[in-house]
Design brief:
heterodimer, A: 668 residues, alpha/beta, Rossmann fold, eight-stranded mixed beta sheet, 22 helices, B: 470 residues, MetI-like fold, two-stranded antiparallel ribbon, 5 strands
Chain lengths: 668, 470
């Protein structure tokens, strides 16, 4: 094997005060070779980003490198003076960040920002900077680069901005590209574009990529080698094949088990109890011991040592040092065959007909209405009691607006929503206030959805108070304790503040708050997308159990297909304010009919390597809902578009009792 | 028994004090408020400036308890038991400063007047010379020879007293804190002197020591001399500067009290309800903002003056007139300065009304009023607090400027602005009289500097954006 391009040895980075430091990176060793894609996988707070920042020497002011070495080729990065480091950063090491929106300067043109990097790092191109910028923009696949380089960041979409960020990183012709969650903020179809781009670029230039991510799907798509990070340490290193066929560390196994998906329908997901330990303590044993199911006495008392288990594969676990590797059971990935969806007899709870939500655009001194943002433009759906309808689509397609319009948090412009015999859009004042207890909402970000200045007990009791449930405070507090237990939290949580809880626990509190008023329908607005995989599993299990016990209906708004496959009964796929395909979960996920559904499903990175599928690449981004394309909204991006598609929006075609699709091709 | 007189501003300042104490108790139970205050108390600059401000506030409050003093036995006649004069508790405490009036200007610590006069000598001849002061250095037989040593001795005595006083307070403090921390007197003393306590007691004690020594030295000196000289009519400048503290504090705090309800109510309403409510409120404050503040203040003060001269019978004393004018100045300053805070609160409320927990509350059917009270108000309080503290020093300076152009407080009222205003003529005089201006500047500078430093600490502690970066 050739010499590694990057070699990190025993790296330790500490943050915060010297008497109680947070050991964000605590003894990391890794090697990255020329031309390979190395993935650093782990939950949030495990020290992934801190490792990358240490390599670039871009630590926050409170951070310091305590021990270890970082060698890039022959250079000792940590020993370089700051002046020399400047040419390494963006030179031999490029970096792209998670949030393309905030990584670009909004007052400079895109071309200027790329040129800046070219000027510093590419001396050969000094004579023709514009030419080099154009070439870079072309290389990252931006259409019409001549025009785009004179535009400002706000004129570009998220995917384009991330491409520009990649172009900037490429300007110095880096040998190593560090990509810190490069696609997390992007939609699946855009994510697929960016991942393909990274792969293509790697093949052309032969650079190495260090990919930092929490998404097993992304890892399986692009990585050559994988390191799993947990609580500041690397606990497993393996090649992709080894990792996905036989993960060795109990933590890695658990990560796989907690992934939702079709195969696990009807059974609870495996969860990793608890959360990542805080990193400001001295560890006596294995860091994962408290959450591990195969924990032994040694795990609590002895720090595990690294053991090689195969060529290029190693793991930090007591199970392997003792030769007990055979003990862990197989991954249950393929164990369960698809379980038939239980169809309980149920009646219709909510019927939405042709719901429209238009936001006026005001312009000029007199603030005249010059147009409308058609966020939701004629959506119809139906939810039965005890069922889950998943509303799927990319960001900006109007999913959340549908949810809020049904709850009357936004008053719809037109259309009807009939809930249990009441026409919600007509309800006003007291009648609406009473109805509100039947419909609740759970938000994406559990922290933002709780007033940080209130005690958890008061937060949960707020709804009861407003709906006059319970006669006095004492009764309500009893109910609060009951609810907390129901969602798996200790009763004394009521007397604490939201910030004292972890992300998963906070989401549990939000669930308890919604349950407090005995709702029939809960709108779940991406309730798990801000959470780590292991925590997501806990919440999904909880939601599922509650549905079984209380016969709740969910409107589950999400962009995550695997969650849909695990939880939903029916699926509605939304594109630019309209539902393009609707049907039961088997129908839609197994034989998608609308080209958009097909593309969306194919773009989702899958862990399962055996059923690799062809990714249908969608070009460009979703158009603005203020100015939707004529005819079928999807035709400018549709790989199967016909000339007729431009003429008029296609009719809904009923394929079966449960299924409708809006595509002209099915009409023929 | 003195007969108490409650002036409007006195009542309001004690109302404010009461509210502050109430807020203190409220904040002590809420972690999100207690946390930032703790970090204020744990910062060195925070406690240092707090000690300085405490001195100012104490003097201001003492100066806000007014009464008719009881007359001495021999002065009582036909049932009049109280003097018609209204003085404050502070005046009572510093009676020597108040009553020892010279003829005209005298320099700080001088023994002679600043102007030559024709003096008749005992033998009948007349000379033009600087006459001796009636009180300043009157105890000296040969001022030329004894003056220097007397000053030094007085300073020394003052310092010793100051050090002793500090020592006593330090001991009491150590005793109290050692009881609470439970690590014994010696241990606590060591920790405190080495600066190992969470609250930087060492800094607090050092500031206190400096302030106390300054206090005792100036007390000693001003008993024998005029520490900062006398003004045109022979009044002690040091006394004037001390009396001005109350005026400064009143302007700085009462203005806030006046403007807060309007700013909070309108700001939150505009941001939360949007629509026509927002339009009306925005229209209101943009209009108000585009009228020059000074013009508005001048107009209001002139109107008040006319009113007061037409209804002279409503005001029993000069003091009440001056007080009414001060109150009016606070109100009018409040009217011109609420727009900034209102605008900030509107912006914050617009942001907050879209926040998930407000949406969740709406989904529960919680009423608008409840949402504002429970979710919006507590989450904008930090902005209110930061603005109030930051505005304070600006308002103190504004008073000086307004009094300088004669639309500030009543000319009979002691204020730094009036002192500076009178210094205009004194500076043009030959030889110049510099001490009035100096005294006003020194007092104002100390107050404004401590207030500014303190407000920086408060802002750092409360601003969520700054908090995350630390």
């Amino acid at each position: 094997m050739s010499d590694p391009l990057l070699q990190i040895k025993h790296l330790k980075t500490w943050l915060g005060s010297s008497d109680n430091p947070v050991k964000a990176v605590d003894g990391v060793d890794l090697e990255i070779h020329q031309g390979e894609t190395f993935a650093l996988l782990g939950e949030s707070g495990c020290g992934k980003s801190m490792t990358a920042l240490t390599m670039m020497r871009l630590l926050p002011a409170s951070g310091r490198i305590v021990d270890g070495s970082v060698r890039l080729g022959d250079t000792d990065i940590l020993a370089l003076p700051e002046a020399a480091m400047r040419s390494e950063r963006g030179g031999r090491m490029g970096m792209i960040f998670q949030e393309p929106m905030t990584s670009l300067n909004p007052v400079l043109t895109v071309g200027d920002q790329i040129a800046e990097s070219v000027k510093v790092h590419d001396i050969a191109a000094k004579a023709d900077i514009d030419g080099r910028v154009l070439a870079l923009l072309k290389a990252v696949g931006i259409p019409d680069p001549k025009r785009r380089m004179r535009e400002y960041p706000h004129q570009l979409s998220g995917g384009m901005k991330q491409r520009v960020m990649i172009a900037i990183a490429l300007a110095g012709k880096p040998e190593l590209l560090i990509a810190d969650e490069p696609t997390t903020a992007l939609d699946v179809t855009i994510q697929a574009q960016v991942l393909t781009l990274l792969k293509d670029l790697q093949q052309e230039s032969g650079m190495a990529i260090m990919l930092i991510t929490h998404d097993l799907g992304v890892v399986s798509e692009v990585a050559d080698r994988i390191a799993v990070m947990y609580a500041g340490q690397i606990v497993e290193v393996a090649t992709r094949e080894q990792f996905f066929s036989d993960p060795q560390h109990p933590y890695s196994r658990k990560l796989f088990d907690s992934l939702p998906g079709k195969a696990r329908r009807g059974q609870p997901l495996a969860v990793i109890e608890g959360s990542v330990p805080s990193l400001n303590q001295e560890f006596k044993g294995c860091r994962f011991a408290d959450r591990c199911e195969q924990v032994m006495d040694d795990c609590q008392q002895q720090i595990p040592v690294w053991s090689e288990t195969g060529p290029g594969q190693g793991v930090l676990c007591h199970l392997y040092t003792k030769g007990m590797a055979a003990v862990p059971g197989p991954i249950s990935q393929t164990a369960a065959s698809a379980v038939e969806v239980k169809t309980k007899p149920s009646s219709s709870l909510l019927q939405v007909e042709d719901l429209k939500m238009h936001f006026p655009i005001h312009k000029g001194v007199l603030r005249r209405t010059v147009g409308h943002v058609k966020a939701v433009d004629g959506v119809s759906m139906e939810i039965n009691t005890g069922h889950t309808l998943a509303l799927v689509g990319e960001s900006g397609c109007g999913k959340t607006t549908v949810g809020k319009a049904i709850l009357q948090l936004l008053r719809p412009t037109a259309g009807s929503a009939n809930f249990d015999g009441d026409e919600l859009t007509q309800l006003k004042g007291e009648a609406l206030r009473k109805r509100r207890s039947d419909m609740q909402i759970i938000f994406q970000d559990p922290m933002a959805s709780m007033n940080p200045r209130m005690l958890v007990g008061d937060i949960i009791a707020e709804g009861m108070q407003a709906q006059r449930i319970g006669n006095n405070r004492q009764e309500r507090m009893q109910r609060v304790e009951q609810l907390l237990e129901q969602v798996g939290l200790p009763a004394d949580a009521a007397k604490r503040y939201p910030h004292e809880f972890s992300g998963g626990q906070r989401q549990r509190i939000c669930v308890a708050r919604a349950l407090a008023v005995d709702p029939m329908l809960i709108v779940c607005d991406e309730p798990t997308s801000a959470l780590d995989v292991s925590v997501q599993a806990q919440i999904l299990n909880l939601l599922k159990d509650l549905q079984d016990d209380l016969d709740l209906s969910y409107l589950f708004i999400t962009h995550d297909i695997s969650v849909v496959a695990y939880l939903a009964h029916e699926v509605a796929v939304m594109y630019l304010g309209r539902i393009v395909e609707r049907g039961t979960v088997q129908e839609v996920l197994e034989s998608p009919q609308h080209p958009y559904t097909k593309a969306l499903l194919s773009a989702v990175p899958v862990v399962d390597q055996e059923n690799k599928r062809e990714v249908i690449r969608l070009e460009g981004d979703m158009p603005s809902p203020a100015n939707p394309p004529a005819g079928c909204h999807f035709h400018p991006r549709c790989p199967e578009a016909l000339p007729e598609c431009k003429q008029s929006y296609p009719q809904q075609i009923k394929l079966s009792d449960t299924r409708t699709v809006s595509c002209i091709k099915l009409d023929q | 028994m003195p007969q108490f007189v409650v002036l409007w501003t006195d009542a309001l300042i004690f109302l404010l004090l009461f509210m502050a104490v109430g807020f203190g108790f409220y904040a002590a139970r809420k972690e999100h408020l207690r946390g930032p205050w703790r970090s204020v108390v744990e910062s060195k600059v925070g406690v240092g400036t707090m000690v300085v401000l405490l001195f100012y506030v104490t003097i201001g409050l003492l100066d806000s308890i007014h009464f008719h003093p009881a007359l001495a036995e021999q002065d009582r006649s036909n049932g009049v038991t109280h003097s018609s004069e209204v003085i404050s508790l502070f005046d009572q405490l510093v009676t020597p400063l108040r009553v020892r009036q010279e003829k005209t200007y005298s320099a700080p610590l001088a023994t002679h007047l600043y102007a030559k006069e024709t003096i008749e000598l005992p033998d009948g001849t007349q000379v033009r010379a600087f006459p001796r002061l009636r009180y300043g250095g009157a105890h000296l037989k040969h001022p030329e020879k004894e003056w220097q040593s007397d000053i030094l001795r007085t300073i020394a005595i003052g310092s010793v007293k100051g050090v002793l006083l500090t020592f006593v307070i330090l001991n009491i403090l150590i005793m109290f804190t050692s009881m609470r921390s439970g690590c014994g007197y010696g241990g606590q003393a060591k920790r405190m002197l080495l600066g190992q306590t969470a609250i930087p007691w060492r800094v607090a004690m050092l500031t206190l020591a400096v302030m106390l020594i300054v206090l005792t030295v100036s007390a000693e000196l001003s008993l024998k001399y005029h520490l900062l000289g006398t003004d045109k009519v022979g009044e002690d400048v040091f006394y004037q500067a001390l009396k001005s503290i109350r005026t400064g504090l009143m302007i700085g705090t009462l203005t806030t009290l006046v403007m807060l309800p309007a700013a909070i109510l309108l700001g939150i309403m505009a941001g939360y309800f949007r629509g026509w409510v927002d339009d009306v409120i925005q229209y209101l404050y943009t209009t108000l903002n585009s009228i020059p503040g000074v013009l508005l203040i001048a107009a209001a003060i002139l109107m008040l003056q006319i009113y007061m001269s037409n209804h002279a019978d409503q005001f029993n004393s000069l003091l009440e007139r001056a007080d009414m004018r001060l109150l009016f100045l606070c109100i009018i300053l409040g009217v011109t300065s609420w727009t900034g805070l209102c605008r900030l609160l509107r912006g914050e409320s617009i942001k907050l009304r879209e926040v998930d927990y407000v949406q969740a509350a709406t989904a529960f059917g919680v009423g608008n009023f409840q949402i504002i009270l429970r979710h919006i108000l507590p989450n904008v309080l930090h902005i209110v607090l930061i603005t109030v503290v930051l505005d304070f020093s600006g308002l103190v300076l504004a008073e000086a400027v307004l009094s300088y152009v004669n639309i500030g407080v009543d000319p009979t009222m002691n204020s730094w602005g009036n002192m500076i205003n009178s210094a205009r003529l004194e500076m043009a005089r030959e030889p110049i009289v510099w001490w009035s201006l100096m005294a006003a500047l020194m007092f104002m500078f100390t107050l404004v500097l401590s207030a500014n430093l303190f407000s920086d600490v408060v802002r750092d502690a409360f601003d969520p954006r700054l908090r995350s970066s630390r």
